[in-house]
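pipeline/complex-builder :: batch 7 item 3
reading input block
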Amino acid sequence: MEISAQTIDSIHEGLLQKRFSAAELTAEALRFAETENPATNAYLHFSPERALAAAGRVDERIARGEDPGALAGVPIAVKDVILTKGVRTTCASRLLEHYIPPYDATAIERLEAAGGVILGKTNCDEFAMGSSNENSAFGPVRNPRAPDRVPGGSSGGSAAAVAQGTAVVALGSDTGGSVRQPASFCGVVGVTPTYGRVSRYGLTAFASSLDHIGPFARSVKDAATVLRIIAGRDPCDSTSAEAPVPDYPALLGGSVKGLKLGVPREYLKDLTGETAEIFARGIERFRSLGCEVREISLPATEFAIACYYVIATAEASSNLARYDGVRYTTRSQHSETLSEMYRNTRGEGFGAECKRRIMLGTYVLSAGYYDAYYLKAQKVRSLIARDFAGAFGEVDAIAAPVSPFPAFQLGEKVDDPVAMYLSDIYTITGSLAGIPCMSVPCGETAEGLPVGMQILTGHFDESTMFRLADAFERETREES
Amino acid sequence: MKITEKEVRYVAALANLNLSETEIPRFQADLNGILEHFEKLNLADTEGVAPMAQVLYEAREDATLREDVPVEPLGNEAAMANAPLAGAGYFKVPLVIEK
């Protein structure tokens, strides 16, 4: 019952063949996760009651001969920005340290309806702001592949849990790369679906036009299975898409020969060292699969960081305004007036990165600066979206690096926020365009640090993205 | 300097953030660095380009509407459960109007 080796299929099989019950598997998963957690700090808290109740329902359905669901008995870790009813959800912030949501996110409801077992909530950068999981109010997460290094962020805990083997799949959120980059750093699969593919209802809002919920897994197939379950129109999220959800897992296993892959020249020009070598080998791997690889151009790339950080921080400053001490548990004491209470609560409660982004966002939206920054950034966003639309007229998918470097040392980049922002260059572009993108393990540096390959496709073309990633994954495994 | 200390204090006040005396110069330096990078946007030719306010354009006109059928609300008790201070079904806050 080795938890770290399980897949969605192996658990399903094990349950139906009565090799173990969901309750037994869950109890073992909880025990294993609790034992391993101090090494990474991936989980902030466990939800044993909820997990065992879910497992009990799965066992009952099996006993009655009913279909227990596509995710029956699967141990799942959930990033702590996603609301779980009755289970503390902190967003890794002091401001929500004691917050207990009164409702479930739609993604959570769908996971459990499919038989999923939620083990606990994972650590992340505070309010999903960061690229290293060093901005959590409850301590950083350590990369299970290299304990002196970051797991990436902001969904570091979820990536670490899957990499460590304490969860079979996990949910994260991605606004500018927060699923893809930790997936790359931890050597697992991480998917950012099309904007609107998965309901954002119950996802604590960071930047509403850029936020996505996405799965982590140890295989493309498992990630595709989770996406199939959580995707689809939700009346509670008016930005969720009506587009039908294909049976993603059923599309895997075939050939990708003849598919055209574009590699953006603007992404390659500053890519150096081992990351560049591993990326180049990945491109060769696509060629050996029969893909036609060609260079493409995304000229607006040079404006992407500025565009992203204007829009994301502006939206964040608005979304985080609600944490003011009135409604959500934490309130600064000894404030004589309402204004004082707002300022003290927020001043005491937010970490530095959140404050930085809130102030930036407030600045770019303020009178006199709105046109120059926010409006301009929205126009540049159109340019970036146009670049991708144009590219997908020529190619079926885009292959790109995920990050200019593999996992860096804890503490190495905390003093240079601008450098941290600049390192998001390969992931923020896809977010701005709203297209689906994912990271699949590509190789390792000489030191054994994982490096991911990013695959991007057109809106709602997760099918092509998964087919390519699946073929790539098989070829990568065969090579090693 | 793209942003003065006075502007930092102004923005912090707009954002309802109390900053300590040590935080102010630190954030001033941080914001300055980032705002300098934002200057790049001026190099982008956006003549005749519409701002991208929506990510996907295919939503129906009534995408944000639902049938006018009453649904069970969250309920006052659940809504107040996380209140730092509450009473009689209301959130309690300090003095609203300053003396």
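note: The radius of gyration of chain A is 21 Å.
queue -> next item
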